[in-house]
């Protein structure tokens, strides 16, 4: 079976034949969910699946793969930075400004989502300490935890307030709504990173920055889902 995460549901479908096109899977999901065909995106392993003419093997879809279906309904949104006066003429993005945007998005995840993921994981398995480090430190991983990830950067990024009032620790076991909300916010961050414009091969540094950011956010999402499934 393959698994499709949609809102608070997880749908299960037989593994399609290897030659099946992505467009066929998208159409089947639209019919099953009654969502307009162009109203949602499909994400697998941190990447948006875009080419409907490509076979599923191109996206490494296999047994027990998990695909996220995003769109077609209202999702909780990350807090937006304070509004600023917009210039009359918007300048095209540069590699430097794109790198700053990538680092800002990653900092937003680290400061507003990672602490809550740590709290949820600890509440599900109190004997396992959180393993995602802060941007300036890299603690030694404890037994049974994934390797800590670190990121060094001199870019100045704004501080974003927490998107909700989730406690730093739980007095009781987290609920499925806690897991779903954090999962959706992390998926939205992956979508924002994917949507950032990169000027082909002319911006190798920005491309490397985005790849590293996607890998880190996907790692947080995998840790969240893994702890929830193992509860």
Automatic annotation (TrEMBL):
GO terms for molecular function: adenyl-nucleotide exchange factor activity; protein-folding chaperone binding. This is BAG domain-containing protein. One of its GO terms (cellular component) is nucleus. Residues 18-70 form the Ubiquitin-like domain. Residues 72-100, 126-179 are annotated as: Disordered. One of its GO terms (biological process) is protein stabilization. It comes from Suillus placidus. Keywords: Chaperone. SMART domains: UBQ. Residues 179-228 form the BAG domain.
């Amino acid at each position: 079976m393959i698994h499709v995460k949609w809102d608070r549901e997880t749908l299960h479908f037989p593994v399609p034949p290897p030659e099946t096109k992505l467009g066929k899977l998208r159409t089947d999901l639209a019919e099953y969910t009654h969502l307009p065909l162009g109203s949602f995106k499909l994400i697998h392993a941190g990447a948006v699946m875009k080419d409907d003419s490509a076979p599923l093997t191109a996206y490494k879809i296999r047994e027990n793969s998990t695909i996220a279906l995003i769109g077609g309904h209202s999702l909780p949104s990350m807090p937006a930075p304070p509004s600023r006066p917009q210039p009359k003429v918007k300048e095209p993005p540069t590699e430097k400004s794109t790198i700053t945007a990538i680092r800002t998005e990653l900092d937003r995840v680290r400061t507003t989502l990672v602490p809550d993921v740590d709290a949820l994981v600890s509440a599900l398995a109190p004997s396992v300490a959180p393993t995602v480090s802060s941007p300036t430190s890299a603690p030694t991983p404890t037994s049974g935890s994934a390797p800590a990830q670190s990121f060094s950067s001199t870019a100045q990024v704004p501080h974003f307030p927490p998107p909700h009032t989730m406690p730093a620790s739980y007095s009781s076991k987290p609920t499925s709504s806690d897991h779903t909300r954090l999962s959706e916010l992390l998926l939205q961050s992956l979508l924002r990173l994917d949507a950032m414009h990169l000027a082909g091969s002319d911006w190798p540094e920005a491309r490397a920055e985005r790849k590293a950011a996607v890998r880190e956010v996907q790692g947080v999402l995998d840790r969240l889902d893994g702890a929830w499934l193992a509860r």
